[in-house]
Design a protein that fits this description.
38% of the residues lie in helices and 13% in strands. The relative contact order is 0.12. With 421 residues, it is an alpha/beta fold. Bound molecules: pyridoxal-5'-phosphate (PLP).
């Protein structure tokens, strides 16, 4: 394999249009530029860019220092806050995976990435349309940072049915999507929403953490800015917090400048671990997908399960859109129990032996979480037959996980029916 710079300038720009490599090939090759894996004047190179730890960068003389300060610091050693090749390699790899992206900035968490992307596109007086099924901390950022700053957030139905009505009340600056939605997994018509936004001069951002660009290349579907909580599937091992924002040529400069102004950066060790995770994203996602699908189908047939909210199942809202736009599903979904009984749900979860109880997801290990979507709704109503459990299906054998859930449903039944008797 030739370890070439990505284009003649070696600045990582402008190659995505003629890049015919498939995503799995990109995962193996991306971000491995010779200047990051070799030593000048020496033959050969190592496979993965190493951890470059730095705050101070030393210059040869005053003229060199002045020249460095006067030129772009993008992917150049300048000062530790602007990163080192370890972070640039990861950012570059994420750009390669997102056709249409001009560049990627990294952040210390997914929430930091969401906040900075919103601050980059909005200013006081602007109005933001936020999907009602958004990740709860995204809503908190809108209410507790953007609103006091003078930005109005309007929550919209994930189907997008009411968008023209909101436009009638005044101009909209930005449309934020998350598809499928957090907790409830509604799939949005991203191409239609992006086209609507383009026609109305509205910038589009998406939280694409669930699918990753591997299963849903968001910029190819018309979105301007794509955000990942890399903490989840990019890292894949539940041991690093990291976030990313990839943007098209219209927006990348603004995203980069805002990230610099806020002093946002990631530690080289965290970037390195995320890069290591990225190499196996393809095979991990395929296993998460297959195991989660098997378990979702099994759950759907259980009499104590009212509904399974999984985009690849036909009764998930937006399933047809998922089939049209996505090339895969991943390991995270929710199921609704029959019978409104909190204690019974806790009995189900507490006794599981193969599922951890905890926030986050995307690691190799399975997790179960009680979720209450109705708390995080304002534009739409969330009604369900009973309490909800969100599962992240890890890389364990799905037969073990099904047996564990089967025993859990028996505990649910015992507490629910015992309580009623
Ligand atoms: C976890 C998550 C985030 C936030 O990521 P952190 O790295 O935990 O800050 C954002 N969006 C979605 C959909 C998530 O699940």
């Amino acid at each position: 394999m030739g370890l070439r710079p990505r284009n003649a300038q070696g600045d990582g720009r402008g190659v995505s249009e003629n890049d015919t490599r498939k995503p799995l090939t990109k995962l193996a090759q991306a971000g491995r530029r010779p200047e990051w894996t070799g030593m000048p004047g020496q033959p050969g190179g190592i496979v993965s860019p190493p951890v470059w730890r730095a705050s101070t960068i030393l210059y040869d003389d005053v003229a060199h220092l002045r020249k460095a300060a006067a030129t772009s610091t993008h992917e150049r050693l300048f000062y530790g806050r602007k990163g080192t090749p370890t972070a640039w390699s990861l950012a570059d790899a994420l750009t390669e995976l997102e056709p249409g992206a001009d560049g990627t900035m990294l952040f210390p968490s997914g929430v930091a990435a969401i906040g900075c992307a919103l601050m980059a596109v909005l200013k006081p007086g602007d109005r933001l349309l936020m999907v009602d099924s958004a990740y709860d901390p995204t809503r908190n950022f809108c209410e507790q940072v953007l609103r006091p700053w003078g930005v109005e957030t309007i929550y919209y139905d994930p189907t997008g049915a009411s968008l023209d009505g909101h436009l009638a009340d005044g101009p909209i600056r930005a449309l934020f999507l998350e598809s499928p939605g957090s907790l409830t997994f509604e799939v949005q018509d991203v191409p239609a929403l992006a086209a609507w936004a383009k026609a109305n001069g509205v910038v589009t951002l998406i939280d694409n953490t669930w699918a990753t660009p591997l299963y849903f290349p968001a910029l190819s579907h018309g979105v301007d800015i794509s955000i990942l909580a890399g903490t989840k599937y990019i890292v894949g091992h539940s041991d690093v917090m990291i976030g990313s924002v990839s943007a098209n040529a219209d927006w990348f400069g603004r995203i980069r400048q805002t990230a610099y102004l806020f002093g946002q950066m990631v530690s080289p060790d965290d970037a390195w671990l995320a890069s290591r995770g990225l190499r196996t994203l393809g095979i991990r996602l395929a296993q998460h997908r297959d195991s989660a699908l098997a378990i979702a189908h099994w759950l759907k047939d259980q009499p104590d399960v009212a509904r399974v909210l999984h985009p690849a199942l036909p009764d998930c809202p937006g399933h047809d859109l998922w089939r049209r736009d996505f090339s895969g599903s991943t390991g995270l979904f929710t199921f609704i129990l029959n019978g409104d009984d909190e204690a019974a749900r806790a009995a189900l979860i507490d006794g599981l032996s193969h599922f951890g109880i905890g926030y986050s997801w995307g690691g190799f290990e399975s997790l179960a979480l009680p979720v209450d979507p109705a708390r995080y709704r304002s534009a739409t109503r969330w009604d369900a037959e009973g309490p909800a459990v969100r599962l992240h299906i890890g890389l364990e054998d799905p037969a073990d996980l099904i047996a564990d859930l089967d025993a859990g449903l028996a505990r649910f039944r015992a507490v629910r029916d015992g309580g009623r008797a």
